[in-house]
Design brief:
The protein has two domains: about 140 residues, no CATH class; about 140 residues, no CATH class. It is about 55% helix and about 5% strand. The protein is built from 15 helices and two strands. It is globular. The chain starts with a helix and ends in a 7-residue tail after the last helix.
Length: about 300
């Protein structure tokens, strides 16, 4: 982007933020949109400094969220799983490769089948899982096992390290803009590329997730002219790198107006929420002259 294009894009972003703050009512929890954003930023900063067990508590519910409708993936997941059954990744590590593991899941005739005793009880909500208001299936268990194994393998490489776990996972300081690719390559094998990107955004990596509204706004505004929104969302032709670099330029420029400990996390939050609330792809002025969005 040219300097003038970055300036215009930052003006669009500034307008989105200010409109959301001015027009969004207080939520049912009594928090304003600004307070919600501040909370996400603080959690991302805390995660960037946390150990493996703390990061696991952030990530292990995600396979459940990606496997069910969003209205069901709510506090039920947290309350059902916080009982301690899945709160330690060491309980699940290696389940995919060991047929004797209590959480073992196998693929049979193109279906995932719970083999281990714990996996069978969990999927059928029997035994100590009886009465749980949580839908799941063996495929979710397998994803959890893969994620847990990644944690165990990475920690085994650096058993005496006192570094934050995300630095170990990325192989470098996660504040480095290139670190996302190294960590993402490991996580996507367990929880899928899109879920991994969402998780890493929450965990403090200097990146934005390829959210449907972020990609739409980026193309409708003309911030990105080399890719379609579908190519950005699905990482075709290096779409994610283009998206992250472009958003980084805009957020960095806007940080003079909106100082933040994690400018990209705030950018991600406000642009995605603006898209969900106002559906700007239907506004002609937005497409015709994005630099005049505030007019």
């Amino acid at each position: 982007m040219t300097e003038e294009e970055i300036k215009n894009a930052a003006a669009c972003y500034s307008y989105m933020r200010k409109r959301l703050v001015a027009e969004s009512p207080v939520g049912t929890d009594g928090k304003t949109i600004r307070e919600h954003c501040d909370g996400l930023v603080e959690r991302s900063i805390a995660a960037s400094e946390a150990d493996a067990h703390t990061i696991w508590e952030t990530l292990y519910p995600l396979p459940f969220y990606s496997a069910m409708k969003i209205e069901f993936a709510s506090r039920r997941v947290q309350s059902a799983l916080k009982g301690g059954w899945l709160s330690d990744f060491r309980m699940l590590a290696g389940a995919e490769s060991s047929t004797n593991h209590p959480w073992h899941v196998a693929r049979q005739n193109n279906r995932y089948v719970a083999i281990g005793s714990e996996a069978r009880e969990f999927c059928s909500r029997s035994g100590r899982y009886e009465g749980m208001s949580l839908k799941t299936n063996p495929f979710v268990i397998q994803r959890l096992s893969r994620l847990a194994t990644i944690f165990e393998v990475e920690l085994r490489k650096s058993p005496n390290s006192t570094e934050p776990f995300l630095n170990i996972l990325a192989g470098k300081d996660i504040k480095d803009r290139e670190s996302w690719a190294l960590a993402h390559a490991k996580l996507e094998s367990a929880i899928g590329p899109i879920t991994a990107a969402h998780a890493m955004t929450d965990c403090g990596f200097r990146m934005v997730k390829p959210d449907i509204w972020i990609t739409r706004i980026a193309t409708r505004c003309g911030w990105i002219k080399t890719h379609t929104d579908a190519q950005l969302a699905n990482n075709r032709h290096g779409g994610w790198q283009v998206l992250f670099d472009t958003c980084h330029e805009i957020a960095s420029y806007a940080s003079a107006e909106f100082p933040s400990k994690n400018p990209l996390r705030e950018f991600d939050f406000y642009v995605a929420n603006y898209g969900m609330r106002y559906r700007p792809d239907t506004a002609p002025v937005f497409e015709a002259n994005p630099s005049l969005i505030a007019a």
